[in-house]
Amino acid sequence: MVTDSHLLEERTFDTRFEVAEFVDAILSAAGVKAAFTDTGLWAWLACYFFPTLYAPDAKGPGKPDYWIPEQSWKGYYRHRIAGPLGVYVAHRDHLADAAILLKTPASVHGEYSEQLASRQERVTSRAVVGVATTLYFNKASGTVKKGGQSRKKPGTLLRYLGFLDQLDLTYDLYSVTVDELLALLPPEFDRFKK
């Protein structure tokens, strides 16, 4: 039974964190666990909040899975609501470490979300996401640092992900801490540690 307390209110969201926090509270109040396989729920929520989640640009509304998630994890991380909520739920006990994925604009998927969240074993590791936040997110200004998304330069996100692939052969990336993983990074990442 749905009561008036479970009705959604119209509102806007500045960040992906605000989206996730709000939807998590609404689902919890309604007694609904985050049903990530319920594509109808996520499509409806995305339509309901479309005005605040859509940033018009020359390309139109973006990929279809921004609004209607695929049946697999491969599409859920891109969804404007299910994606941030998945990160929020995975990092609920240490949300500050996930700022690179949650403190960005609600209407933007972004390169960091694309690269980190596309691999479930990466996005659910506190150390992996925490180090990405340390390297590429300026907590004081609440913005991503410049230069971290470059495709060819040392110390950038893609170099970080490549380094993780090497570490994964000898380290359990779920058991290391953020500080331990930071200490393992080669000197090319030093410029982003500031």
Distance between the termini: 52 Å
Protein structure class: mainly alpha
User: Which whole number gives the mean pLDDT?
Assistant: 87
- What spatial order of strands do you see in the largest sheet? 1-2
**Morphology:** globular
User: Which stretches are poorly predicted, pLDDT < 50 over at least 5 residues?
Assistant: none
Q: Any idea what the radius of gyration is?
A: 17 Å
How many helix segments? 11
Strand content: under 5%
β-strand number: 2
Major β-sheet annotation = 2 strands, antiparallel
Can you tell me the number of structural domains?
1
The string of secondary-structure elements, in order, is HHHHHHHHHEEHH
Which percent range fits the helix content?
Answer: 40-55%
List its salient traits.
194 residues; mainly alpha; two-stranded antiparallel ribbon; 2 strands; globular
Task: Please characterize this protein's 3D structure.
With 194 residues, this protein is mostly helical. The protein has one domain. The longest helix is centred in the N-terminal third of the chain and has 14 residues, at 16-29. It has a two-stranded antiparallel sheet with strand order 1-2. It has helices at 16-29, 39-48, 50-53, 73-76, 82-90, 99-102, 111-117, 120-123, 126-136, 157-167, 178-184; strands spanning 137-138, 143-144. Helix content is 44%, strand content 2%. It has 11 helices and 2 strands, in the order αααααααααββαα.
